[in-house]
């Protein structure tokens, strides 16, 4: 098992739980690393890639435990990815230290339209100077907006507002608006635009495989029915 910060955060969250976390499809036997149905496990396909860019995931409470979460895919490809649970009133001291690290350029990844008029905004990832630290607010769209509004320790950091040309291919949760993309898709595009082509390509490939196998595990999805038909024919 390739260890990473998201797996550690998930373990910490489970250790604090006072009752079992029951996500959709909780009756299906799942791999406890990738959270896919065991028959669709993709752990053996993981191939980490080096990159100049760095990522810090700020995850809403139950997000690390959701099988549909794609933020953890970033840590699969970039094992040095940092991950912290979000708290409005008691932010993790390690998170505060990470965003103040003088060796990186911290950038809060979020749409420009939500930034205050006087807040610095960039639309292209920096390709020179210190490595960028892309801070991803990982949750549902409603949760992400809450984290953006109620995280004063991030307010002084520039906003990285990215325009993605390709449509989202997520399909695992309901979108709350046109043009919205999941965390892994945004991260992969950031990598490509930052010059980390190999890592960006690898993350897009990993996301596509994850999406295919996730949907194949849903009993009423066509890909699951096609898989079952092939099995029965054999």
How would you sum up this structure, described in words?
With 234 residues, the chain is of the alpha/beta class. It is 33% helix and 11% strand. It has 7 helices and 6 strands. The chain has helices spanning 5-16, 71-77, 93-99, 141-149, 183-193, 197-216, 222-233, and strands at 54-59, 82-85, 105-109, 121-122, 132-138, 159-160. It has a 6-stranded parallel beta sheet with strand order 2-1-5-3-6-4, with helices on both faces. Helix 5 (183-193) runs antiparallel to helix 6. The chain is globular and about 50 Å long. Mean pLDDT is 86; it is low at 172-178 and 223-234. GO terms for molecular function: tRNA-uridine aminocarboxypropyltransferase activity. Its EC number is 2.5.1.25. It is an enzyme of class 2 (transferase). Residues 27-219 form the DTW domain. This is tRNA-uridine aminocarboxypropyltransferase.
Strand order in space, largest sheet: 2-1-5-3-6-4
Count, helices: 7
Distance, first to last CA: 32 Å
Please tell me how large the radius of gyration is: 18 Å
Structural class: alpha/beta
Seen as an oligomer or otherwise, the chain set is single chain
Roughly what percent helix? 25-40%
Strand content range? 5-15%
Mean pLDDT: 86
User: Using DSSP, what is the number of strands?
Assistant: 6
Keywords: S-adenosyl-L-methionine, Transferase, tRNA processing
Enzyme class: transferase
EC number: 2.5.1.25
Protein name: tRNA-uridine aminocarboxypropyltransferase
């Amino acid at each position: 098992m390739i260890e990473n910060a998201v797996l550690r955060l998930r373990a910490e969250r489970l250790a604090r739980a006072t009752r079992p976390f029951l996500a959709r499809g909780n009756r299906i036997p799942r791999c406890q690393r990738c959270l896919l149905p065991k028959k669709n496990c993709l752990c053996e396909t993981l191939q980490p890639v080096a990159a100049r860019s760095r990522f810090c995931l700020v995850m809403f409470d139950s997000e690390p435990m959701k099988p549909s979460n794609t933020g953890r895919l970033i840590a699969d490809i970039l094992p040095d990815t940092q991950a912290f649970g979000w708290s409005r009133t008691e932010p993790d001291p390690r998170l505060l230290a990470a965003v103040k690290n003088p060796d990186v350029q911290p950038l809060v990844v979020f749409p420009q339209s939500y930034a205050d008029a006087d807040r610095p905004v960039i639309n292209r990832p920096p390709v020179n100077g210190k490595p960028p630290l892309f801070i991803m607010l990982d949750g549902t769209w409603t949760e992400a907006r809450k984290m953006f509004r109620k995280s004063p320790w991030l307010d002084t950091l520039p906003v990285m507002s990215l325009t993605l040309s390709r449509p989202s291919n997520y399909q695992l949760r309901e979108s709350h608006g046109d043009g919205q993309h999941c965390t892994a898709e945004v991260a992969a595009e950031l990598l490509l635009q930052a010059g980390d082509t190999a890592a960006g390509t690898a993350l897009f490939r990993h996301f596509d495989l994850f999406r295919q196998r996730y949907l194949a595990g849903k009993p009423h999805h066509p890909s699951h029915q096609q898989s079952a038909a092939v099995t029965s024919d054999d």
